[in-house]
Recover the amino acids of this structure.
């Protein structure tokens, strides 16, 4: 009887819902906790694991493979916390659901931009605290319409964001390793520029790239200093793309007017994180990809990938990492 274990904490209600999507004979349960001991136990007991945010280390993959683990299914897209080299070495398949959360992340990105431009969170906090900060917020409350937005990484999320921004009449710049074909650029009405040009020209910079050797620490004291005076930074990519202490300083001392961050180098956030508790930095607990109304499609796709491996078939190429 194939056994699926979810490594992240999961409630009984969600497990019950997921059971309805399982092929006949499969079972699903959650790991006992995030502790190293319980994570290793889950890897050893499972035929397949599903993971959202919990790191999947070489030691975990080795322990799982030795006990019959066949595959790791990422719930979402980002795979930087999964040791792919170890998975290849021990023969464990790794899949994801490419593009499945792109619209949710794009909508969250737009929401973050609007919340900062319109000072919504600062206004809410002020009124909640018994204040009336209307005059205080007026000098830094801006429209999004007509502004220049720079997107670092124009993949599924970035392209979904471009479509949302079209209604605001924004100029959209982008940078990535290779520019899009001219026809696609024209259809999206975007312009490829260098990172330096994007930082200097954009009123809002949004990070929607993968975390890899090229993007790790990309936004640091040097690059943040190149940003336009009074600009905003949004990070819904991965925490490691930003040097957090440098971002906190750039908001506190300039040139940034504010930042919005949904992802962190260490999750859950540890006490003393420099981004937490700053008046002009919005922080959320990695919720950008969460969308209850996407649950059926996401679970169906994940279970479908797992079922392919169980049957000895190849999952869809677009979802295969290892």
């Amino acid at each position: 009887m194939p056994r699926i274990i979810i490594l992240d904490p999961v409630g009984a209600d969600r497990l019950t819902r997921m059971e309805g999507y399982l092929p006949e004979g499969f079972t699903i349960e959650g790991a006992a906790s995030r502790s190293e001991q319980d994570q290793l136990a889950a890897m050893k007991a499972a035929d397949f694991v599903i993971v959202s945010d919990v790191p999947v280390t070489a030691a975990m993959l080795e322990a799982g493979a030795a006990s019959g683990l066949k595959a790791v299914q990422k719930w979402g897209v980002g795979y930087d916390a999964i040791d792919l080299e170890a998975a290849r070495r021990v023969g464990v398949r790794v899949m994801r659901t490419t593009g499945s959360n792109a619209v949710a992340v794009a909508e969250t990105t737009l929401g973050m931009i609007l919340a900062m431009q319109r000072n919504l969170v600062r206004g809410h906090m002020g009124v909640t605290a018994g204040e009336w900060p209307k005059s205080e917020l007026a000098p830094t409350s801006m429209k999004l319409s007509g502004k220049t937005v720079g997107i670092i990484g124009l993949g599924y999320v970035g392209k979904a964001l471009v479509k949302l921004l079209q209604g605001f009449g924004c100029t959209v710049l982008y940078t990535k390793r290779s520019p899009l074909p001219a026809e696609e650029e024209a259809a999206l009405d975007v312009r490829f520029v260098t990172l330096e040009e994007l930082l200097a020209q954009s009123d809002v910079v949004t990070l929607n790239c993968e975390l890899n050797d090229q993007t790790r620490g990309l936004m640091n004291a040097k690059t943040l200093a190149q940003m336009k005076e009074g600009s905003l930074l949004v990070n819904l990519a991965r925490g490691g793309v930003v040097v957090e202490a440098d971002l906190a300083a750039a908001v506190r001392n300039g040139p940034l007017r504010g930042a919005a961050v949904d992802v962190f180098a260490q999750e859950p956030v540890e006490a003393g994180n420099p981004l937490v508790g700053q008046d002009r930095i919005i922080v959320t607990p990695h919720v950008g990809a969460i969308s209850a109304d996407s649950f059926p499609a996401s679970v169906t796709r994940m279970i479908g990938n797992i079922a392919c491996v169980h049957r000895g078939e190849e999952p869809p190429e677009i979802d295969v990492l290892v």
About this structure: The first helix runs from residue 12 to 19. Residues 157 and 285 are 19 Å apart (CA to CA). Residues 3-100+292-319 form a domain with the Rossmann fold fold (CATH 3.40.50.720).
